[in-house]
Amino acid sequence: MEEFANLPGVGRRSAERLAFHILKSPPQAALALSRAIADVKEKVRHCSVCWNLTDRAADAGGAARCEICNDPQRDRGTMLVVEQPKDLIALEQTGMYKGLYHVLMGRISPLDGIGPEELTVSGLLGRLDHPDLNPGGTPVVELILGLNPTLEGDGTSLYLMQEASRRPGIRVTRLARGLPTGSQLEFANKAVLADAIQCRQEVH
Amino acid sequence: MEEFANLPGVGRRSAERLAFHILKSPPQAALALSRAIADVKEKVRHCSVCWNLTDRAADAGGAARCEICNDPQRDRGTMLVVEQPKDLIALEQTGMYKGLYHVLMGRISPLDGIGPEELTVSGLLGRLDHPDLNPGGTPVVELILGLNPTLEGDGTSLYLMQEASRRPGIRVTRLARGLPTGSQLEFANKAVLADAIQCRQEVH
């Protein structure tokens, strides 16, 4: 009960209910949960290339590549930069993106003392500078900035854009900003409408 | 009390409170409200060009032009199509748009029996075909589709796009679709993320 109560969103009563549920459940079910929790810490690691999460076995040097970096079907010349593995999962669920990723593990936030050194920025720039660090040895030709459309996300994007612009041959894009599909114009706020007007796109 | 209770969102108790408030208020205040309500029906009409709302006096033929159509500072070669006057007001509040509008007064909705004939589509196409119907006699060079990013809005956009594509010299654009500014990627739905990936834009 004490261990369950340490989890986020689990209060004393919920912890009690969970503990009694395990007490009543067959040993296999309890052991499966116990093993899954232990496995997370043992088997799940960050991809040595893009920092995505992976449960693939590490090689002798302790490095592991994720499913996406290992997939030869993906477009290895395109790299989408996101803040967190969660963002990568959300984008993967659309099934629209066929390139590789790079997870920054946060965003630049001077107020919290987080600069590029606290993130995986050097790994990202390494992949831009040395194609052999990229899966398949493919040079990056398009860098897509997929950071959150927030103040800190935009600041981080600006920094990465400046770094990338020093490297010729890399096209830098960002995820589109505008009206969310399914929304109503009259309820959109000014910033969203201003983006929608400024970034308007040709239709054919 | 009965009249107030007919208004949307005003129940029996609110109507009572409003009625007693008027009973207690000085005659000038009550008359000002009474006059404002009468004036709406008498003075507010649709602009004879773009169907925006206006309180300008009508000419001998009963036609009136709104502030926007009358403003020579606006870019009269650009026309932004919206569904409702409310949408126009929301876009104007951004201060980002300097062209003219055309209010459709709805959207094409076959299930509700609303086709182009029930809307102001013929007025819109007239303005595209005959520059002299447009303020200042300026030909329209850019048509911006600003309908809601919904199923019916998209259907209406498609219809207008086809009509405009038959008219050479008109560039057709639509308001940008993507992540709303200030949002979080991980909470965006699949359709929004798919738009954001597909419509990604070059940054410089």
Write out key terms for the chains shown.
homodimer, 204 residues, alpha/beta, Helicase, Ruva Protein, domain 3, 2 domains, four-stranded parallel sheet, two-stranded antiparallel sheet, 7 strands
Gross geometry of chain A? globular
Helix content of chain A: 25-40%
Can you tell me the CATH architecture of the largest domain in chain A? 3-Layer(aba) Sandwich
What's the domain count of chain A? 2
* Low-pLDDT ranges of chain A: none
Largest sheet of chain A: 4 strands, parallel
Class by alpha and beta content of chain A:
alpha/beta
Mean of residue pLDDT values of chain A: 93
Beta-strand level of the residues of chain A, as a percent range? 5-15%
Level-1 CATH class name of the largest domain in chain A? Alpha Beta
Most extensive interface, residues per chain? Answer: A-B, 55 and 54 residues
Rounded Rg of chain A: 21 Å
Order of helices and strands of chain A: HHHEEHEHEHEHEHE
Distance between the termini of chain A: 61 Å
Strand line-up of the largest beta sheet of chain A: 4-3-5-6
CATH topology of the largest domain in chain A: Dna Topoisomerase Vi A Subunit, Chain: A, domain 2
Q: What assembly state would you assign to the polypeptide chains in this entry?
A: homodimer
Compute the number of strand runs of chain A: 7
Number of DSSP helical runs of chain A: 8
